[in-house]
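Study both lines:
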Amino acid sequence: MENEVKLISGAMVTLAIATASLVVLPYLQLRHEPPTPGLKPYTDAQLRGRQVYIREGCVYCHSQQPRDPSQAPDDKRGWGRPSVAGDYYYDSPHLLGTMRTGPDLFNIGARQPSADWQLGHLYQPRAYTPDSIMPAYPYLFEVRKQAEPGDKVVALPPRFAPAGGVVVATQAAQDLVSYLLALDRTFPVLAPLADASPASN
């Protein structure tokens, strides 16, 4: 019985230390971290698109956290500067991701700022990146004989366009693209300093 008590006590102490180190201390350190200068709150459409991003499991294949050049060549891959805590001020839950089956999306809104490209890529990734292993999301679109007023028609390369019809983006697809285009953290981490006036002699 004495050994069981020691084992349970040791496990509880270990768990408490791990929780304090990995949860409590980071929370206390970052809870008052302000948003990075230049970061804007998400719009309603972007928030809806973020929910589509979560629902479709994009976070399982894409990260949103470029690393420091000393840890990985993410800057050479064109993924942008290393992320900082303030970049995620408006994110709840955070979608940092751990897998990179696809590229990091921290700055996809800057790398691919075309809504038409984003929509076409969601409908059929291989129309834009032939060797892509990303799944297509045709159920986020509708194929119609002709577009109606107000429809967002997806302009696809001719060999991927449906015969005798047009591809129309649903609201969910448009919201998802709004969210992706909002992923643009190309602004500097620090606010620019006010110009210092030259010292008088």
